[in-house]
Structure formats: structure tokens, C-alpha cells
Structure prediction request, 581 residues.
Amino acid sequence: MDDITYNPGLNPGEQRDAKEKVLHHGRRVSYFYDHDVGNYSFSQNHPMKPHRMRITHNIVTAYGLIDKMDVLRPKRATPSQITRFHTDDYVDFLLKVTPETVNELTGHGTRYMVGDDCPAFEGVFEFCSISAGGSISAAERLNLGACETAINWAGGLHHAKKREASGFCYVNDIVLGILELLRVHPRVLYIDIDVHHGDGVEEAFFTTDRVFTCSFHQFDGNFFPGSGDVRDVGYGKGKNYAANIPLRDGIDDESYASIFKPVVQHIMDWYQPGAVVIQCGGDSLAGDKLGSLNLSMKGHGECVKFVQDFGLPTMLLGGGGYTVKNVARTWANETAIVLGEELDEDMPYNEYFEYFGPRFKLESMRSNMDNQNSPEYLENIKTRIIESLRSMPFAPSVGMHEVPSISVGEAIRVVDSEEGSEDEDDVDVQISHRLTDIHRSSARKQAKTASMARQQQRANARASQMDVDGDDEEDHHHHHDQNHTSPPDFFSSTSRFQQSFASRPPILYNNSTGNASPSISLATVAEQMNIATNGRNGSGAARRAGGRSTFARGREEVKKQKRNFFAGGSPLPVLSGGEGW
Prediction:
């Protein structure tokens, strides 16, 4: 065990616990469970019972397996995570649909939910988010190297299509989990031992060589979903990267193992996957309400053990299974298998103990039904699969890139890493919010600039009006200037006064002392003067009617101060608006 590399991202306590689990139980196992998953019901008479996950968890707890693995409650999948595979309109439909609105939203059963297999029960999206969140979280845990095996018995819903529910499956958590694994692993192997063909997963990866799909299922042309013929091997770049093993009714443990082990061994040897996902549907067990195979709990578990022994990062998922007590016991047993534990045949007392009477044993036995899978038939199927493998390239390569250690939202700075927002992965929403803030800020700045420009225009207009009024007063009172030298023309307006001396060196002036000081520049004095002269009350007509003499005296005082200033006399005073101005 010394050669095991532990994830440096784990803190010392987590590394120590992980090492202890490896030393005592062989592999680090992460077990994902959300206690709310058992609260949902498809309908009273529907064969799919989410309550079976709660029963499984009770058996696992009663056997003490919880203490031997990391038990985690997964983060529920967000709509944006689900749209990594499913279409936006379909996910939006799942968010909105209720038993009352289903006919309207599905066009009376013509889209999204066709047929009676997938009813619109209360909380359908929440149920899907638990299932999908568990598989995504399991894949993330494997990618981090925090465990070698991750279990999500609420997952394995392999029939869901890109924009349609099918076969009791609404969201394809398997596809979402595999997509997460592909961020780190160049190739992923998917193995399906459910009684039904894993059509949704195969369809999702039918044209790529990065995922090899291998399904062992009952097949007679009429059995749901009707696909999974041995001739279905993929298309385009994905040709020969799909293997379908169609089985006839009544196959038992020995016959199943005789084709399962050599086919999986050849795929492992030739394809060289980096990770494995195995869907452990319990409807392939004997006595299932919908299936017609004849596997015992031991035969079913032997498939899991065989895959586990390859030592690759492995994700175990649930799936079908409609005889609830058999499914719960089988999944609890397979949890023990990946932990390297042997469970007592006599079941310990648990909350659902009475379900398993009268024997109260950890068992799911075979029946005496006929096995219609002859050795010749199975050998022929095996030969065709192996020949198909030989015709494809060995371990197809793929260009890999460094995977960001932070979310996309953090990378493009629309999410604060310290906030830990649940919507952090919803990048579209975050970008929309950020752009809205930018536009609002820009609009405020533009409005402020426009307001300042309007104020400046009004100030200039008032200054021009003042100059016109001042010229009229000068013509009327010209006899007051006989004993004084007339100032240059540029003193006739404050704006021309500012423009004329803009290029002069700054002259500093202190308001309180009248001495040179670095506190106020000439430009500031001129600006204050401009503001003061612009602050007079009343219109030009009113001043001409009743305030000419007062204005004239003030105007003469300003001119006199200007002349004294540029002749080296007393400093120019800082004027302020007030009475008489």
C-alpha cells in the first residue's frame, strides 16, 4: 500500500483517514446518499420505488459498513449542470411540470413525457437533481483522487434521452457523471448489467471513441426498449466502441459469468480505460417483476467484484430493480464487496427488518426457470464481440488539456471564490448579472457627464448674457471712465479673461493673508470669479429696469481690481455671490 499516491489537496486529517481505510479495507470508498431520496413517489401503482434507496441505506448502516467508508451527502445538480447533456427546453420543462400542468406542457403527451412510464409526479426535478448530483459528485471525487470507488445507488437511470424522459428515467445521471470523468480520463468504460439495454448512455456516446459502452441485457426484439442488437457497434468515430450482448430468458450465474468475464477482460486489455462506470441494475435478479433473467445475489455481485479487481477508479450506480427487498439486499452486499467485507447471512435488525421475513437472510436466490441461452449461442456472441475489438485501434489516444482547478465562473471573474455561491457554476446567469451591472454603471456615468455638460452650457449662457448687459451699462455710463485708462478688450468677459491667461505661469494666492501661497492658483481664482459673477440673481431685463446703478458700481469695482492686479497692485479678491449680485 506504500505506493499509493494520496491527493495533495486533502488536509492531513483526511489523508490519514484515507490511508487507514486503505490499509484496513483495501480501497478508499466514498458513499453518496441523500436521505430525501426516499420521500418521492412516482405513483401508488408504479413499479419504480425510490424508497428502495432508503431501505438499502438502512441495511448498510445496520451492518456497520458506514464506519468503513466516507459517507457524503452530494450537492444537488443545478439546471446548468444538467444542461451539459440535456437540452435547455427539456430542463426548463422539468422545472415547471406538475401533475396539473403536464398535459398542457407536453402537448397532451406528444413531447418530453410520452406514454405512461414517466409520470409528472410532485418534486420530479428535485428527485432528478439528487440522482444526477450524486453521480456528478462521485465523478468529481474520483477525479480528485480522494477515493478509488464511489457509490451512488440513487443513480443509474440509463434510459433518459437528451430531450425526453424514457423508461422511468428523466435525467441521465450516468452521462453527466461520465462527462465529468472525461475531464481527467482520456477513456472511460461503461458496463451495464441491468436487464434492460442501456440505450440512453449508448446513444449519447454512439459517435465517439472516448467512451466504450458495453451492455448485457435481455433481448428478444419486443422487450423494452427494443434496442441493443449485437450488430449495433457505434457509428463514425465511435464505430466498434459499443458492445451489445443480447441475452435470452433464464440465464443463470454460470452462463452469465461465462460471457461477462471474457468480454470485459478483452475490452480492458484492448481499450485500456482510465476509469470504469458500472450500472448495477437489480432487475436482472431472479424474481424481478419486470425482468426474466435468473441471477442470484451472488452472481450479480461477482460481476462487481470482477470489475473491482482491475484496480481502476470505479463508479457504482444503481438502476432498475422492482422487487424492492431483493434490490436492497443486493446493493448492500455489493457495498460490502467493494470494501472487502464479508457480511453475515443473518440480517441484523433494522428499520425495515419485517420486509425480509420469514427467513430474514441476506440472500436473493435463483428460481428453477429454464435457461434459454445455450453454450453455442453465448460462444457465438462472445466471438463476434472479440472480433469487433480486434478491428479497432489499440487504446485510442486523445488530446488532453490541463483541467482548471477552479470553476469557470471564478476563472472569468464573475464569481467570488470566497462567497461559495450555489449558483457559482451557472455562468450564464453570473455573466448576465455582471453585464447588467456594467451597463447600469455606464448609463449612470453618461447621465452624469450629460448633466455636467448641460450645467456648463447654462453657465456659459449666463456669462454671455452678463457680458451683453455689461456692455450696455458701459455705453450708458461711459462718462465715469474719463479719468481712468481703459482696460484691454479681453477683460470684457470672464471667459476671455480665463482663455487669455491660460498659458501664463500659475500665480498662487492665499485668501486669508493676501500673500503668495501654494494653496490656490490663478486658474482657481479666475474660476471662483467666474462662478461669483455667474451667481447674480435676476434676469438682464429686471436689472436694466431696477438695478442698473447698483450693477454699474459693482462692475466698475471689478474692473478697478483687475487693473490693480495686473499693474502690480493689491491682490485680486475672491468674490462670492450675495446681496446686490
